[in-house]
């Protein structure tokens, strides 16, 4: 395999991974919407004090988001993508 072809394949893989990461983040935000709303309500009208006054809501939101945005989830999405695409075309 030539250098140019290998570079193109790596570029495609990076683009696919970026798209999968984006999809993963969108799903996480959708799944954690109630925590996002709680944090937004707490943070409303605050500036620096949001750090300590909304710590509980921030921790809850981060915990929820982490359940849907971690390496294991990304690897599962990659496997699903490879099965659906037949190891080829970039369909996301």
UniProtKB/TrEMBL annotation:
Ranges in coiled-coil conformation: none
Source species: Stylosanthes scabra
Superkingdom, taxonomy of origin: Eukaryota
Protein name: COX assembly mitochondrial protein
Annotated keywords: Disulfide bond, Mitochondrion
Localization: Mitochondrion
PANTHER family: COX ASSEMBLY MITOCHONDRIAL PROTEIN, COX ASSEMBLY MITOCHONDRIAL PROTEIN HOMOLOG
Protein family (similarity comment): Belongs to the CMC family.
Keyword Mitochondrion (UniProt): yes
